[in-house]
Amino acid sequence: MSGTDNGLGLTQRLKSIRMLVLDVDGVMTDGGLTIGDDGQEYKTFHAHDGLGMKLLKASGVNVAIITGRTSNVVKKRAESTGVVHFYQGAEDKLAALQDLMQRTALTPEQCAFMGDDVVDLPPMLRCGLAIAVPDSPDLLLKHAHYVTHKKGGRGAVREVCELIMQAQDTFDGQMAQFLTQASIAN
Fold first, then answer.
1. What fold characterizes domain 10-167?
2. Which end of the chain has fewer CB within 10 Å, C or N?
3. Which residues bind Mg(2+) (predicted)?
4. Alpha-carbon distances of 178 from 44, 82, 158, 160, 170, rounded to whole Å
């Protein structure tokens, strides 16, 4: 944990979250951009992150995506993970976040924003929980309430999803389904 806490501890911030808002490049991916000869863009997503997003949604916390780039690959990833609130080509991520909060009737304290670069700082500072990946610029790390142990595209999103569920006492319930399936198989 880093940044200023304004009297609220990390656990209290996590308990208030009803929406996890994610950047894509550098958070859901490792930040690398692969473009084929045909101009097609390719991205690699971590399977653990996708399941984490689904589990978080099943626990009652929605997931949204706000990205500055436009990509059909990201749209497909959003659909496959059940993300309903999806903003592409968002040159002003803060405006997109404010639109999202208005549409969902959520307060800033109920939102967490996870970013990796300075363009993510305005929405991060607006949310009740600002999250950065460890290879973010120092300015972001300074203002983050939480810095993940895992890098973007390498399980950082799953780490945050589990952290939120643990703080909200929904983690064990989400894991129970897998334990039940495992005991049936034995």
1. Rossmann fold (3.40.50)
2. C
3. 23, 116
4. 26, 20, 16, 20, 14
How sure is the predictor about 183, in pLDDT bands with cuts at 50, 70 and 90? low
Domain extents in the chain: 10-167
Is 92 marked as a binding-site residue?
no
Phi-psi region of 105 (alpha: psi -120 to 50; beta: other; left: phi over 0): left
Question: Residue 157: helix, strand or coil by DSSP?
Answer: helix
38 is in an annotated binding site: no
Residues 6+ apart with CB under 8 A from 148: 131, 132, 133, 134, 156, 159, 160
**Is 135 within any annotated ligand binding site?**
no
Torsion sign, CA atoms 22, 155, 168, 130: negative
